[in-house]
């Protein structure tokens, strides 16, 4: 049986504005410069701690400051996470088709796990995902293959039967590190050149194009 593992932010859900608004609110609260929304396309992708680090001025990136702002960000994001976030056009239909065709589908995200579950419940209540994993405390973040290997083990799927779908270099590197097929999407936060440079086996521009690859 074939398995399709999806990244979340920038792949299934357009979360950029809510992430950016939450981070800007925290930066403003603590007296740091805020950023244009477009800047967050480069800040996100490696987990929320790295997001905070990238958003801070270089001279302010101490471990203690990042820790304080990280806690504040989680409080902000809990309030803002579903304000503007939406599935990308065609995503719900794609997921429904994949399940009807008998594919296994899962999520492997660098977003902390406690934030992933409410978003999945909110936006995909009728999609029976086979596994949903966000970043778990004490486990390595993508591009380490840990989360993909855990998924393969839990669902008893061979690497040759797995496709990893994502929008960034982090996702392509994760797929390569795990030894599975890397599929890059161009509707997310990064561009096609980045996906190709990081070894995408396939590039798709619309969700329904995934079916042609499978």
UniProtKB/TrEMBL annotation:
The lineage of its organism: Bacteria, Pseudomonadati, Bacteroidota, Sphingobacteriia, Sphingobacteriales. One of its GO terms (molecular function) is phosphoglycolate phosphatase activity. It catalyses: 2-phosphoglycolate + H2O = glycolate + phosphate. Its EC number is 3.1.3.18. It comes from Sphingobacterium thalpophilum. One of its GO terms (cellular component) is cytosol. Keywords: Hydrolase. The keyword Hydrolase applies. This is phosphoglycolate phosphatase. GO terms for biological process: DNA repair. The keyword Nuclease does not apply. It is an enzyme of class 3 (hydrolase). Pathway: Organic acid metabolism; glycolate biosynthesis; glycolate from 2-phosphoglycolate: step 1/1. Belongs to the HAD-like hydrolase superfamily. CbbY/CbbZ/Gph/YieH family.
